[in-house]
Amino acid sequence: MDGLFFILQSPHKFNRRKITVKKIRIGIFGAGRGISIAQNFMMLNCEIVALCDSRENRLKKASKELGEDIPTFSDFDEFIKQDMDAVVLANFFHEHAPYAIKCFERGLHVYSECISNGTMAEGVELLRAFEKSNSIFMLAENYPQMIFNREMKRICDSGNLGKVLYAEGEYNHPGDPKNSEFKKDYVYYGKHWRNYLPRTYYITHSLAPIMWITGATPKRVSALAMYAPIEEEDAPVSTYVGDRAAIVTMQNDDGSVFRVTGCAAFGGHHNAYRVCGTEGSVENLRDGSDRVLLHYNDWSKPEGAEEVSIYAPEWNDKDEALIKTSGHGGGDFLASRMFVECLRENKQPEHPFDIYSSVTMSSVAILSHRSMLEGGVPYDIPDFKLEEVRKQYENDRISPFYTDDGGTPDIPCCSHVNHAPTEKQTEVYNKLVESWG
Length: 437
Hints:
This protein is 30% helix and 22% strand. By secondary structure, it is α/β, with parallel strands linked by helices.
């Protein structure tokens, strides 16, 4: 076959797997979010060779947007039999690990949406399967690649901030409780994962950027919740989480401290990040712009620098035109490009997109929720690079979610453990679901 020649070999294995392809061939599992991810890979000259989703209407929409000649599947096991190099896991938030393991067993590379694993035991299983494979794994976390976060990393890497002591990450995404279209697209049945999502779980959009900027890894977590349930009786409320946010504090491997939210819903919508060192600090402004605030003390500012400067950073990237067409502030394209580069160069992604960092972030999500339920009791984050540590968690399947096989939650999803939508709110939601047919 004519085309480019890549040697795709994972660093944790020595045997080489040679693939001669004209384009990297990618399968998409999850035809909701998966559509926009696929479009970014197509901009990178990859070929989408198969689509898989359990919902026929989503497959039809994906085929219309990506190409009606692309084979579609409702069964994952049949889907991954197709001739492909990598799989995008864009299925339900908490169900990525079992499918990633199936990909590893077939020697397929994995681009996994967040989070990498929904339970501690899945984190153990994911790593064990990965280490037996030749696969490359990357967490599809896009928020670090927003222009202000890239600028903050550049400044942090320069050393001008001194020793990093503290960083903040806030992913604040409030929504209109009466938005029925959002419900139809994203919360379309009562036991959907979004109705049981603890506020600490959706953590990578707040945590990954500051892990990337600073290079630090969390080692100990504590969390507290802010309980304020939705009060509108005429809203189609279906969530069993009455918390608006959880504040998670972490001690890191380098002695620094992080403070992050998971998915918060307070005040006005914003994504905010801040890094403070011994000599200066940098943060993005909370005004909806891409501007950053760089602040030094007069006695320790770098030569030629202003004590305080506010400015809009530049991309300075060869693909700027494509970046600007991409979602999530260009992060979708840049994260996809990172994965393609990993495949072409036969390497695992850098921290925190690699599988070990990904599992660490899942551990933070899971264990900080347990901390929150216990009033902020600290939890140590296990080092799953060590097999003796993995053994302590290999049977820990505690989850706040319903499972496909009929399993029920075995831990509360809210700080007020008996919280539920009111009878009227549930009635309004159920009528809305019925109206969809």
